[in-house]
Amino acid sequence: MRAKDLTVKPGIVGLSAVTSVGRDWPSTWHALLEGKGASLSFLQFGSEFSLDVPVSGVIGLDRSCTEHPTRGATSRLAEMVLTPLSRGDNDSARLYGASNHSESDILLQLSRELPDDSSLWRGLLVDPIPEQLLGSAGNWCSSACTSSLHALFAALMDFSETRTERDAIVVGADALSAVGVMGFLRAKASTHGECRPFNLKHDGILIGEGAAAIRLRYPCSDCGPIKILGFGMSCDAFHPTDPDGAGIWLEKAIRDAVRRTGCDVTDIAAIISHGTGTPKNDLVEGAVYERIWPEGRIPITSIKGALGHTMGASGLLNVLVAVEASKTGLIPPTLGGDGYVIHGLDLVQGMPRQIKSSSLVLAVASGFGGNNCACVIGPDSL
Questions:
Q1: Whole-structure pTM value
Q2: For range 55-69, the mean pLDDT
Q3: Cα separation of 58 and 174, whole Å?
């Protein structure tokens, strides 16, 4: 999309989330400010595999995958965050959704049952969640851990192209999956203890689950000053799982997002980073921030030490944190132990960092396949 097309900046009229530390967005936000996290063995979540690996899960979530595969844990998480933002059956808001691995444990249930006439077989060919949530209208994205930001960007592009009065709801969701946990273990990407984003003692991600949603409206005269001001996205296609070692395309996505706000990188007050706690991601991402802001440090945080890596929902959760940070001027701390921070980074630790309210805040997400997304949140008056 051309920068001149980004004159339409829809208002934010609702935020919703379900995470391992909160069943709604206010409780999640307060837990993040208080430095609370949640980590349990995957054995506590009913896995049939003996995977004693730390994960961050939603306690009490119904994880059953019934004969009809659209009613698994991921779709339940999506429905939980959509309910507070929906006006009911007559709601005309267009839905934009995203998930990284959807109801991938359908495969495990099939391996147990294997009936020839099972409706579960269709779930291997057609993603069941968008069929259930979108109906005949809407967009669905699946681009690894940038999925929900790509869904958000699809909504923004539609607003800019149609310029019609309407609402849009963007949702991202992913539940713990035995298939996913096993995959990250085989890739040697999972932490064996504590997730430590941007810490030299980092050893891998804390696999998490959760969902986030945001309701947008255009035009909106009474939505408040905080809006989505600009975005950038790129794909380096460097490696199926590893980031581009130079971080050139991540940098491009960030610079494009800032440029489209009409501001300069020096106007950014804080960063809600991707910050996975893996050496390859953290070193590349940290080097990009140091390169873009060489004259002075900028406060950076990662919520993955607290919530775990929520896969397809992670980018949108970063946006929700950026919205709240811009409103309140508070940047939640990064969990994962003090000290040993990668050189050149001003990592927020221990307690929230105060910045000026109504500042510009950058939210970032990256994903397998080389996907990079960046989004600038702040007041439209700048």
A1: 0.92
A2: 80
A3: 11
